[in-house]
Amino acid sequence: MPHGFKGERTLMRIFLGEGDRCESGPHKGKPLYEAILLTLREEGCAGATVVRAIAGFGASAKLHTGKVLRLSNDLPVIVEVVDEEENLQRMLPQLDDMIGSGLITMERARVILYKSS
To answer: Which of 12, 18, 89, 102 has the most CB within a 10 Å radius?
Structure first.
């Protein structure tokens, strides 16, 4: 589905661990970031990006890092998606079912350019 929007939109960020698995739905058992990405695409979102961080900690305060001496198989991962707020709000119950632990934030974003290659 082509999207051609500019102006005010909403940026959703989903913070989770690289080792997290999808807890329910058609992608149950897959890496959570992959399941979220597939679900966003299936639901017609404008686009999404998965970013792996080099270090971080969450609610447990456990440090996850890529340092050689403290190598982690569970580095922080952020899924970012920009779309209309209504579309993202519609996705929240489905995401809630998929995510065992994590953080979701939303903020306003101003889209300057969006076009496919």
So the answer is: 12
First to last CA, the chain: 14
What pTM does this model have? Answer: 0.83
Q: Is 1 exposed, middle or buried (0-12, 13-18, 19+ CB in 10 A)?
A: exposed
- What are 51-104's pLDDT values in tens digits? 998 877 776 666 666 655 555 567 899 999 999 999 999 999 999 999 988 899
Tokens 């686009």 correspond to: 47
Q: What is the torsional sign of CA 55, 62, 21, 39? A: negative
Q: CATH code for 7-111?
A: 3.30.70.120
Of 33, 19, 116, the residue nearest 75 (C-alpha)? 19
